[in-house]
Amino acid sequence: MPSRTLPTFTRAEVAKHNSAKSCFVTIGDNVYDVTDFLDSHPGGADLVLEYAGKDIKDILQDPSSHAHSDAAYEVLEESLVGFLASSDDSKGGSTGLENGAATRTDAKGRPIHPRTGMSCEEDLTKDTDIASDYKTHRFLDLSRPLFPQVWNGGFTKEFYLDQVHRPRHYRGGASAPLFGNFLEPLTKTAWWVVPMIWVPCVSYGLYLAYPGFENKAGQVVCFAGGVLLWSLIEYVMHRFLFHIDYYLPDNRVGITLHFTLHGIHHYLPMDKYRLVMPPVLFATLAAPFWKLAHTLFFWDWSIATSIYCGGVFGYICYDLTHYFLHHQNLPLWWKKLKKLHLEHHFLDYENGFGVTSPFWDIVFGTQLSSQVGSAKKVD
User: How far apart are CA 255 and CA 62, in angstroms?
Assistant: First the structure.
């Protein structure tokens, strides 16, 4: 099975891949397998084979040669198979990473994070070559239902976590099949379903609790407190439930539950019908909090209900924010949130757990590296 990062090659190993059966080229430290591209090259296969096993950076930039389009670089990015081993690597020294930051680069010189295989948020919307992806990683075939593949895959926890956090993008942003049968519609939820179902529930709960307040401003305070409490619950659930990675049981039940609950979102982060929480799942997760609220505030049903309604309203704001961060062009404040959240997907899934606000990431020290760097510049 594939390792946590792409493999490294010595220059001698790359030089051996110099034929039509196996053609490798390099740009800097990046190694590309362009064998399948040979017959498609506009200048013919022979022109590429002339540089087989060699570095092509100079010829790509040579003004006397024809100009290469962005499409050519995209072909290369999809063909990345590893990196050249530096002298330090061969001696077991530096990994090329400092404090988790990637030093490998894509064809345009942008840093690639080794644990996601991506360099920028635009990578999240590049269609995955399904056949090539499965051939390379031997994880999931996006053309077939995913749930049975996860259940029957026999994946180790380490391999599963490595692969599920390497984002893919299904044909034009459509939804990849999960069950492939009558259950399929139940796995998809449009963003507008969330306010349509839960706003009336919140309004009705507040209506029932209203007579219990002598000072009507008290209900506003309780409701606002519930919204603020949700922001902490959001952070805790995202960090310790959805990203239970370290404590995830190393068996098919644990892995399949993880994939169904949140793993599929990291695997296919731009699937717009699997971004917000299905109503049945939210009701299941929210039920214990109803009991908790009325246990903590047992002396006053109205207070408990108003706080709970505030929490549910906070959830509504969270799910809508989450959807819009992925799929809408937003005003300045939300652009910053969008940048941070998408970095959680393509750069560092072990930090940046706040979606509606980075406040709790700052409090608990789980900021993304870009947040820390911005803070240092301000200082």
Answer: 49
Task: Report DSSP letters for 331-354, one per residue.
Answer: -HHHHHHHHHHHHHHHT-TTS---
- Are 107 and 30 within 8 A, CB to CB? yes
Phi/psi for 323 (5° steps) reads -65, -50
d(CA 50, CA 241): 53
223-241 pLDDT, tens digit per residue, is 999 999 999 999 999 999 9
For the stretch 34-89, pLDDT in tens is: 888 888 777 778 878 888 888 888 877 776 665 566 667 777 777 888 777 654 33
Q: Can you point out the beta strands (E) in the chain?
A: 8-9, 18-19, 22-27, 30-33, 80-84, 97-98, 101-102, 104-105, 111-112
pLDDT confidence of residue 109: 67
What pTM does this model have?
Answer: 0.70
Tokens 């990196």 correspond to 83
Buried b (16+ CB within 10 A) or exposed e, 143-175: eebbbebbeebebebebbbbbbbbbbbbeeeeb
- In this structure, what token pair is assigned to residue 37? 């591209």
| Type of residue at 367 | Q
